[in-house]
Amino acid sequence: MLLDYYKLAEEPFGVTPDPRFLYLSRQHREALASLVYGTESNRGFLALIAKPGMGKTSLLYHYLESLRGKARTAFVFRTDCDSREFIRHVLLDLGIDSAGNDLPAMHESLNRVLAEEMRAGRRFVLVIDEAQNLADEVLESIRLLSNFETPWMKLMQIVIAGQPGLARKLSRPSMTQLRQRISLVIRVAPLNKEEINAYIDHRLLIAGCKDSKLFSPGARSVIAEYSEGIPRKINNVCFNAMSLACALRHARVERDTVLEVLADLDLESLIESPQAVKGTGEDRPIRVTSTPRRPSEKSNRWLAGWAPKLAVVGALVLAVATGIQSSDVLTANTGGKIDDSALQQQPISAERPAEPVPIGSSAEQVQESVRISPGQTLYQISVDNLGRYDPQVLAAIRNLNPWLRDPNRLRIGEQVVIPWATASIAASQNAEFQDVPSSPQEVGKE
Asked: How far, in Å, CA of 304 to CA of 85, rounded?
């Protein structure tokens, strides 16, 4: 459906390392040139190190393709193994079945292959991907492979590629001998904003897209900020944004669509983590930070229409009940007459709600952060998380969010800090009550 809707020949933001979609940024071109130069110069060991998702595997495939017809190659990506299994993976990629052979026998088979390639005038290149997962003893076995040489040349060129964890592993004192044999350390930096735009356009073009404005400038800006220039993250966001835009029948991918996708991809909102709250034992409440579920449109209309009325009715009933009870007690104590002295000595009824307890410092206030989802309002957030919405609540929220100029205008994806403890609301009342509109029940509902 996605391909037909946007008239694409194939998926532009796939997850496989297809060399056709490889976008050679300045950093990728320099890395590829360094790999080729190091191989042609018979430097022995080369190391390619980059962050996850930077396209190392695609770059290695492109490098191996450039060696077609000029060298025999072996590519190993299964690195969670011991020394014997590693050599067996190398021989399997060369088409040699070494099942049942011990390590010396497999080394002998590899030596014969190297000798044959040398007599044929070809190089032999071993490429190891995900090398950060290699055990120390396997790295030592790889170092010993570089001893396959003649007095005038190396019989094997070795490229080890991996994430920054590989650099940390090679920097250990136990890896000194291997580190000294590495002639070139090649790095690949993240894409800048201009390269991110070019990367998106490149993949759309290869996929057959004829609309160069499929992603709006606002959408591209959000993608650039979120992805941090990492191609894999760009692919993931672009695919989901295109899928959502297609489902909504939008001709273009806009900024709001990307923000909604990022909210759906946010794993932190799914992690339940108890907040540290004052108190111990059973008296200590536990709050879970989560993104409130979006209510239906019917639920929104019900809340907007009836919740304020029910709140007023409830307050009136409580006031009447409290007044009647107080009147009965005072009448009984004074023989049917109510005077000021009896009123001053009257204790607070057990049914009367307690006053908020003031807090000592802002460090004791319990707060939580809510990410704004499409359709959410400040009124709904307050009711869902605090069970109420009144001048004190609005004042407390505005005090914790100075940037919140208009409670009726919440932007999707923004974080709103809300108070939870009743004390936080009481503490904010004196500081912000003057700024609260005359009818706060209507503010923040839109």
From this structure: 66
**CB-CB contact of 114 with 126 (8 Å):** no
Assign 3-class secondary structure to 6-35.
CCCCCCCCCCCCCHHHCCCCHHHHHHHHHH
Share of the chain above pLDDT 70, in %: 72
Please say if the pLDDT value at position 387 is more than 70. yes
Please, are residues 397 and 378 in contact by the beta-carbon 8 Å criterion?
Answer: yes
Question: Under a CB-based contact definition with an 8 Å cutoff, are residues 228 and 190 in contact?
Answer: yes
The predicted structure's pLDDT at residue 256:
95
Provide the mean pLDDT of the chain.
Answer: 77
Give bridge partners of residue 73 from the DSSP assignment: 125
Residue of higher predicted confidence among 403 and 95: 95
Task: For residue 64, give the CATH number of its domain.
Answer: 3.40.50.300
* Encoded tokens for 141: 């076995």
Return the closest-CA partner of residue 76 out of 90, 62, 88, 87.
Answer: 90
**326 inside domain:** yes
- Amino acid residing at 347: P
Q: Are residues 326 and 428 in the same domain?
A: yes
Domain assignment present for residue 285? The answer is no
Position 379 scores a pLDDT of 78
pLDDT surpasses 80 at 365 = no
Which distant-in-sequence residues (6+ apart) come within 8 Å of 153 by Cβ? 42, 118
Q: Which tens digit of pLDDT belongs to each residue from 401-410?
A: 887 767 777 7
Same domain, 148 and 208: no
Which of 243, 265, 287 is a domain's end point? 265
Cα gap 194→191, rounded to integer Å = 8
Half-sphere exposure of 334 (CA within 13 A, CB side): 17
Range of the domain at 209: 2-14+192-265
CA distances from 227 to 11, 197, 366, 372, 412 (A): 19, 12, 32, 20, 18
Number of domains in the chain: 3
C-alpha distances in Å from residue 309, one per residue of 200, 301, 305, 312, 390: 52, 13, 8, 5, 13
Closest CA to 292 of 409, 379, 187: 379
Q: Is residue 21 part of a domain?
A: no
Tell me, what CATH number does 254's domain have?
A: 1.10.8
* C-alpha 424 chain-centroid distance: 31
